[in-house]
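Please check this.
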Amino acid sequence: MLPWQSFTVTMNNTIRPCCRFSTKEAVEISDYENAFRQLREDMLAGKKDSRCNKCYQEDDSGIPSMRTAANEFHAMEDRYSKLTPDFRNLEHLELSLDNTCNYQCRMCSSMFSSKLLKRDIDLGLNPERVQKSRYESLKHLNINWTSLRSVKLLGGEPFLSPNFLDFLYFLDMRTNISEVELELVTNCSIKMNEETAEILNQFKHIRLSGSFDGLPELSEYQRVESNFQKSFMNFLEYGDLLRNRRMTIHQTFTVINANFIDESLEYYEPYCDTQSWSYDTDGYLSFMHAPDWYEEWILERVTNQKFRNIIKQKKYDHVSWHRVLHSLRILDTYYTTSLEKVNPELSEILRIKTKKYIDAHEKPATRDCMYCDMIDEM
């Protein structure tokens, strides 16, 4: 249902049907109706679109996908017979108000965290500057806000954003927020004040997703400048302040913490209503381009069936994997941290396997081999 009634706003204020579509596919809002008409026509004809492959792969693996969850939420079965290739009214909106943040998560970028701008400049990681009041561009658009039924707010860090309360009041003036379900994705570093709790409790339902990435020490390592104990206590306090809420722990698994996925899910289970997790699909800390030995090693340690299905879909890519190894070392140097301290087992296997590769690698006579250059830096 998302291509018929959803906007996912990119950090450049362009629109795509959902967050799993590449930002390169996003268009200006004035072009949205026509840009995705063919997608809607194909879906009505039962044709699968390659841009939706991640959901289709999850469906085929027996994993509940975003597609099936959205179809259920938006009552697709009841509406399907009335669908046409035309866009319906806006019912779901997903956006980051800005990139204001107080963390430097290793797998993140300055596109989504203002705190990472200096790091990305220092390390040459494509630094991005983002407009501070992005949702202003939505205010004057010809949108029927009265049909809105769900909103997902991401960061930066929403509770730190100077636009957060302003946006909630903006919605309150244009639609009946008692009929709107609101999802907040937060790092839980900011205490919730009375004004915030008061307006949040006017929404139909709140899904508050607290972001913690693995066991406490691993979470603090991956989420640089975080304080696990403080943030976790804030998460529990949010649950006391909010009514009609579902408290969710969301974790992002990368090569740094994936071997502890079983223990991580078990750790948070007593403290939340539900859990969710995602993984770095193609970033510089992704395990999806790892060698076969990594798959064999991690499958000996992880029993979670969703993860086991996902890791079997990985495709080894030499350059991408060495970018992971390079990134681990560079970020440890930059932050004066140690992967070995927080995940000694992973650190040891990487050291052993990387040494075997270096010893077996035949360096060319010239120095035009970027693989060698990356290995030399490890």
